[in-house]
Amino acid sequence: MARVISVEAERFPIAGVFTIARGSKTEAEVITCTIGDGGHAGRGECVPYKRYGETMDSVLAQIEAMRAALEAGMGRAELQAAMPAGAARNAIDCALWDLEAKTATASVAALLGIAPGPLETAYTLSLAEPETMAAQARANAGRPLLKVKLGGENDAARIRAVRDAAPDSRLILDANEGWTDDNVAENIAAAAALGIALIEQPLPAGRDGKLRHIARPVPICADESVHATNDIEALVGLYDAVNIKLDKAGGLTEALLLRDKARQCGLSIMVGCMVGTSLAMAPAVLLAQGADYVDLDGPLLLARDRDPGLHYQGSLVSPPQAALWG
Fold first, then answer.
1. 23-37/4-20 β-pairing
2. Which carries the bigger pLDDT value, residue 22 or residue 169?
3. Which active-site residues does the annotation give?
4. What predicted TM-score, i.e. pTM, was given to this entire model?
5. Which of 105, 130, 162 finishes a domain?
6. What residues are paired with 302 via a beta bridge?
7. End position of a domain, from candidates 77, 105, 133
8. Same domain for 69 and 136
9. End-to-end CA gap in the chain
C-alpha cells in the first residue's frame, strides 16, 4: 500500500501576548505533517520562523516538494540528504519517527534505547517593562526555573525586578540577539551579581566574536548561532552551552547528532522550543533526557493545546504517550 501524506496549517491561540526582542504574537502558527502507511500514521509538527527566512507558505511548499519521494518510501536517512535543516524537515522527520514506532509497535524511546522520565522545564516570562515583568515573576515564583526574555534598553532593571519578585527561582536570561558590544559586558556583570544561571544569545549570530574576549562569569548559551552539527566546533571558546531546537536542527535525527557532538566538545546542553503544541514538544522531551537545561513550555503558553497533549504538573513535563506521538 502506498503512503498517504497530508499537510495542514493550524493556529493555536496564545494565552495573552508573547513578546521577545523581535516582536509580539498572539497565536502559534504551526504546520502538521502526517504520513500514513499500511494502517499506521505518524505525525510531526513544526513552527516556521521568520528569523530564519521561513514562512507558513514557504515551509508548506518545502514539504509538498517531498511528497513524491515520501510516497515512494523515503526514510529518515534519505531525508537528511535531500533537505536542509529547518522547520519543514523537522515536521517530516518527526512524522517518520512516529510512523516507525507505530509500525514496530514500540515507542520511539524504546527505539532509542532510553527509559524517559519527567523533566523540569523552564517557564518563559515575556519581555515588558520591569514592573510588568516583576508581576509575571511573582505570579510564577513557585516555579523552580524561569526564563526571562530581554533585549531592550534597561535590561539590568528588568533582571533586578524579576530577581526580587522570584528570589527562590533559578533564572535563565534570553536576549534573543538584542544586546550590543557596548552593553553586553555590563549586562553580564549585572546578571552575575544577581545569581543568574545562564544567558542565551546575548549578541547577534555572526557578530558574537566579542564573547571570546570578555569575562563570562555567567555561562553563555548559543541559540541563533547554532542550528546543526556542523556549527558546533566554531562555537567552542565563544559559548559554554547550546540550545538545541528541533525546528532549527531539522528534526530529531539531526538533533540527536547535534547533542552528542556538543557534549563531545564540552558544551552544556539546553533543549528548547518554539511556541508550539504538545505535538512539537513530544520528541523534544526524549531529546532532553539528561540535558542540563530544559525549556519545553510551549503548551503552557497556549490558551488551548492539542488533545491529548503532554502532561504537565507544575513545571514537570512527562514523556509522551503513544496517542500523542512516539
1. antiparallel
2. 169
3. 149, 245
4. 0.96
5. 105
6. 14
7. 105
8. no
9. 22
Check the annotation: does 78 bind a ligand. Answer: no
DSSP result, 289-313: TT-SEE---GGGGBSS--SS---EE
Write the CATH number for 249.
3.20.20.120
Task: List the 145-149 sheet strands across, edge first.
Answer: 123-125, 145-149, 170-174, 198-200, 220-222, 241-244, 268-271, 293-294
Extract the C-alpha cell encoding 277.
Answer: 503544541
Cell numbers for 140? 510564577
Claim to verify: residue 257 and residue 128 sit in the same structural domain = yes
**Domain encompassing residue 128:** 119-317
Average pLDDT of the chain is 96
Residue type, 309: G
Q: Does 29 belong to an annotated binding site?
A: no
Tens digit of pLDDT for each residue in 165-182?
Answer: 999 999 999 999 999 999
Contacts of 192-199 with C-beta under 8 Å, sequence gap 24+, read 192/217, 192/218, 194/159, 194/160, 194/163, 195/163, 195/171, 196/159, 196/171, 196/172, 197/145, 197/170, 197/171, 197/172, 197/293, 198/172, 198/173, 198/241, 198/270, 198/293, 199/172, 199/173, 199/174, 199/175
Q: What cell does 138 get?
A: 511573582
* CB neighbours of residue 14 within 10 Å: 18
Name 98's Cβ contacts closer than 8 Å, sequence gap at least 6.
41, 42, 43, 44, 108, 325, 326
Total structural domains within the chain:
2
Residue 19 has what pLDDT? 87
